[in-house]
Structure formats: C-alpha cells, structure tokens
Design brief:
Number of helices: 21
Structural class: alpha/beta
Largest sheet: 9 strands, mixed
Number of strands: 19
Strand content: 15-25%
Distance between the termini: 62 Å
Helix content: 40-55%
Shape: elongated
C-alpha cells in the first residue's frame, strides 16, 4: 500500500487583467427588479435606451462617440433590406410627414415632420444616384452604475451625446424587461423591441460610424510610429496632404513618465532618417547624448551663452522670398527686421517707454546706415561680420549722450538699459557676431542654462532663437525642416506673449516652406492662461497631428475641451498608461502603442524619459 499522495495536475493560471466587470455583472446578477423606466441589476442601477432616429448627414466615426461611453453596454441588431420593397413604404412615410407638416399648428411637430420627410427624400436620392444599399438597424444602450447619482449623470450624458450627433433617443417605458432580454446574448431578439427601435439606414453610413482601429493606420509612405490597439502597424507620413491634413505640424502632450519624450525623439530621428533637417530647442539638456551618437553625428550647440552658440540679434535676416519675388518690390529686409528687433527689445526691456523706443528705433536706422545697410539693401550675400553688434549700438548711444544735448537724458537711460547686454552679464548671449554654424542636418540648440536667468532675458533669447530657426525654415522652400520645441512651456510667460504669437504665426506659414513645427509640453494649462489663450490655444490646435499621452487634473479637463475628446478617449488619457497615446490626424483618431527595440531606445540616450 502506498502512502504517497498522487500529485494533482497544476491548475491553469488565467489572467485577470482584462475582465469586463460591467458585462460580468450584467449576465450574472444577484437579483433583478424591473420598474417603469429603469431596473435594478444586482447592485447596479440600470436603464435601457433605444435609438429611434438616425441623422441624415454623418461624418466618419460618428457612431463610435455613442458606443464607447464608459459605463454602458450597447447591442446592435442589423439585417439587409430590399431597396425595391422599401420604396413604397418610404414614399408613404414622406406623404404622411408632409401632411402633418402642412396641417399641424404645433411648431415643434411641424419641424419634426419636415425633417422626417427631408431625410426620407435624401435617402431615396442616394439609393437612385449612388446605388446606396439600405439596412435595418436596431440599437439599444444600457446605462449602469452602482452609484445612483453617477447613474443619473451617465443617463444625461448618453442622451446629450445622442442628440449632439443627430440621433433621436428614448428610454423604453414599461418594456425594460423585454429590452434587457433583447440585449442579453442568452435571449433571442425581442420583436416588440425591434418594432420600436428598428430603422432603415444606409449601410455604408452606419458602418462608417465606427473607426475600426484594428485596420491600422497606413499612409503607404512615411515611417513606423507604433502599433494600434489591434496590433496593426501605424505608418505615418507627416508630409501627406489631404482635406483635413493641411500642414505637417504636431502637438505632443503628456505628463511625466508617460513616454512623451521618447515619442518626440522617435519622430525626430525617423524624419532625420528620411532626409528631413531637424532642429531641436532643448531646455532640459535631454538631446545631447542622442545628438552626438554614431547614428546622428549632429551639432549640439549651447545657445545660453556657450562658445559657438551666439546669435547676433542685430544681424538682419533675409525676408522669405517666393520664386516670383522681385528684390525691388515689397518691404525690404531691414524694415522687416526692425519689427523683429522691436519685439526683441520689448521682451528684454519691458519697462522702456514709447519715447525711448522711438529713439532706439531711430538709432538703429542710423547704425545700419553706417554699416551700408539701407531700406533697399539685399543682405542675402552679407557675411556675419558685416552686421553691427549690440556693442556697436551701445557705442552709438554713448556718442549721442554727448552730442545730442536736447535728448541726452533719454539717451543716458537707453545706455543704462543696454549696459548689461553690451558689457555686463548678458553680453555673452548677444554682443558679438553670429557664431552658430551647424554643419549637419541634426541640430540641437541647448537652452538649459537659460532657465536660471531672469524672465526678461529668457523671453528675449527664446525669441531670438525662434527668429533664427524661422530663417532656416524659410531659406529654401524646397528643403524639409522640422523644428521641435520640446518642453515648450518653458518659453511661456503670460506677461510677454510675443514668443507664443511668433510660434503661432510660424505654424500658420510653415507649410508654405515645407516646414514642420513640433510643440511638445507636459501640460496645456500653461498655454491657456486668459492673457495668452488667444495664441496658446491656437499653437496647440493648428497642427493637423495631435499626439496625446496620459494627463490628469486640470490638464486632463482642458485637453478634453480643447481637442473635443469623447468619453472613451477621455478615459484613455486618464489611465496614464506608459507608452500609450491617442493620435488625432485630421478627423481620424487611433490609439497608439509605442514599442521599440532596446537598440532603438539606446539611440535616444539617457536624457529625459525613456
């Protein structure tokens, strides 16, 4: 006799991660109690709605807004219809509706009858002219929640969303039990519910209401971005133009640790590999290692006072020219650059009054004349050392303090304002000829040290850097250039909106010069301060491409409002899953999962999030 127990086979371990608790509670309830317009399903308050009317005109993905609401279960029954058999019924419906429209005295009833007749006539027109096929669709939406107040709020949300997309929706009174049976997979369709909710609708319009993510997002050209929710490859071409894709700009938003920095580096590296020149404004010092690795061999430049990173603000930058431009027509280079300098000095010396600004502008015109630069001078062939510097301007103002006795007091004030830029702490930023001279197509402008400087210096230098970047973009309209403004919140100051205004204008015009502006930030609330919202919201909304990672708090609510997220998209961002983002491309939206090899991640370096 053996005293050894027979070893039991190991029980399989099942993953519990993706359990649909709402569906689980619905099909295995503790108890059921039906009322007129709602019922109790175990511990859940429930109500079932039926869609009794569909919109005449729809956009791609229109129905997904209604079928992806958290806390709901949706069932759709459909079957094809014979167009010929439907025509007499539709004609009868049109005649009935037109009769009501002409006879009723109730304004609301007249409006509804007119809309019914118009919709039916349009459907017949589509059937005749476009060979549109009809289907019979019956849609039920069950709302459920364990909290009564949350249940009421969800019901209101479902009704509001249905109305917003043009659907007519109603709770099904006294038939909640039958509706529940119709919805459950263990019961056959209920004919009474079908009679109430069944409606004829074009099949293509209904199917087009669901943006099937499993089909992937494939532009046919471009670079690998990531994978969609079904594991399909997302191939993205930023330079492809369509109706809703009017530019190549990108907005990237994501909280700390969500993968925003890695995605930004991936996009920059992928475009560089395709031959695009990439310029990155780096306020956190995250791109230095990536820039200098064997794959990029780029130019890392310290533009916060470092050697080789000086951008002379007085160097006149050539105005963008079209192929048919004539050098004798329009506004000259100097006139345009003086406007740029006016903004630069307003940022650097915000306390300067209008009289001093007028004298400064007059002095600048005189200074440029001494260097042979007038209103009509074409400066495209001028080397860097042909332009005046801040030191030259300071010297001219000093001369005027002696020679112009009528205004010497004001020139003394100007001299005092310019002292730091010419001889003091800020001279390393601006007093000298432009030394920045990148030799590669991957350029990193490191601004990390600027964060320690005063707000005025920070704002002025950021504007100076953006002006230089814009010159690179507009120099050759046939060269693709991507400008990445990473951690863009660092250049925002509600007191000085000029940098944001410049960035907005650059986004509007970049497509004309084959340019792409990428704005990456942790939070959008910095862009939406009332004093700068006019520019900040435009900077976020103008790009055709939006890449939204997880955020929370005020930033989550503002993101939903600015980008018009539906409930499912809101929940995706609220989950803050690392490496998961919502991508909006024109009118399309797709969930993106970023997956990279260890070798690819090593290319990005150790700086920033990985």
């Amino acid at each position: 006799m053996s005293f050894f127990k027979k070893k039991e086979p190991a029980k399989p371990q099942f993953e519990q991660n993706n359990v649909n608790t709402a569906l689980q509670a619905a099909i295995t309830p503790i108890g059921l109690e039906f009322k007129r317009n709602e019922f109790l399903l175990g511990e859940n308050y429930c109500r079932i709605y039926g869609i009794i009317g569909y919109p005449a005109e729809v956009d791609y993905g229109w129905y997904a807004k209604l079928t992806n609401i958290p806390g709901t279960i949706v069932t759709i029954n459909s079957q094809p219809l014979d167009n010929g058999a439907m025509l007499p019924t539709m004609a009868k419906n049109i005649n009935t509706a037109r009769g009501i429209e002409l006879s009723t005295k109730d304004g609301i009833e007249r409006q509804r009858a007119k809309k019914t007749a118009d919709d039916q006539e349009k459907m017949i027109q589509d059937m005749d002219q476009r060979n549109e096929s009809l289907g019979s669709f019956s849609t039920l939406i069950m709302v459920l929640s364990q909290n009564e107040q949350d249940f009421r709020d969800r019901c209101t949300r479902v009704v509001s969303l249905a109305n917003s997309i043009g659907c007519r929706i109603r709770a099904i009174p006294n038939l909640q039990k039958e509706a529940y049976q119709h919805l459950c997979p263990t019961y056959p369709p209920n004919e009474r519910i079908n009679e109430i909710t069944r409606r004829a609708f074009p099949i293509s319009s209904f199917v087009g209401g669901f943006p099937f993510a499993s089909s992937g997002f494939n532009d046919g050209t471009g670079f690998y971005l990531g994978k969609d929710s079904g594991g399909g490859i997302i191939l993205l071409d930023l330079w492809k133009r369509e109706k809703s894709r009017t530019n190549s700009n990108i907005t990237i938003i994501g909280g700390t640790g969500t993968g925003k920095s890695t995605a930004t580096k991936h996009i920059a590296a992928s475009e560089y590999a395709r031959g695009t020149k990439v310029i990155i404004i780096d306020p956190e010092g995250e791109y230095k290692e990536m820039c200098r690795n064997e794959y990029m061999e780029g130019d890392w430049i310290d533009v916060a006072g470092g050697r080789g990173g000086l951008i002379n603000p007085l160097q006149v930058r050539p105005a963008p020219r079209d192929d048919d431009d004539n050098s004798d027509d329009g506004i000259g280079d100097l006139a345009i650059h003086l406007k740029t300098l006016e903004t630069f000095f307003r940022l650097y010396i915000p306390t300067m009054d209008d009289r001093l600004r007028a004298l400064l502008n007059k002095s600048l015109v005189e200074l440029y004349a001494r260097f042979g630069i007038t209103w009509n001078t074409d400066i495209r062939a001028f080397p860097n050392n042909r332009f005046p510097t801040i030191g030259d301007l300071y010297k001219l103002i000093s001369e005027k303090c002696v020679n112009d006795r009528n205004n010497y007091v004001y020139y003394e004030d100007l001299k005092t304002y310019l002292e730091s830029a010419a001889n003091g702490a800020d001279h390393g930023l601006w007093n000298g000829y432009t030394t920045i001279n990148p030799q590669s197509s991957f350029v990193v402008l490191d601004t990390k040290s600027l964060v320690q400087m005063s707000g005025a210096v920070l704002a002025a230098q950021y504007f100076n850097i953006l002006s230089w970047c814009w010159e690179q973009i507009t120099r050759d309209p046939t060269e693709r250039i991507m400008l990445v403004a990473d951690e863009c919140w660092t250049m925002i100051d509600p007191q000085v909106p000029q940098s944001l205004e410049f960035l907005r204008n650059a986004e509007k015009r970049a497509r004309k010069y084959e340019g792409s502006i990428v704005v990456a930030t942790q939070s959008i609330t910095d862009f939406l301060d009332p004093s700068i919202r006019l520019y900040g919201q435009a900077v976020l909304d103008l790009p055709s491409f939006k890449l939204l990672f997880g955020v929370d708090g005020d930033s989550l609510r503002e993101t939903q409002n600015v980008f018009g997220l539906n409930e499912a998209q809101y929940e995706l961002l609220a989950a803050k899953q690392r490496g998961i983002a919502l991508m909006k491309v024109g009118s399309q939206a797709v969930k993106v999962k970023f997956e990279f090899s260890d070798k690819r991640l090593a290319m990005f370096g150790k700086g920033g999030g990985r």
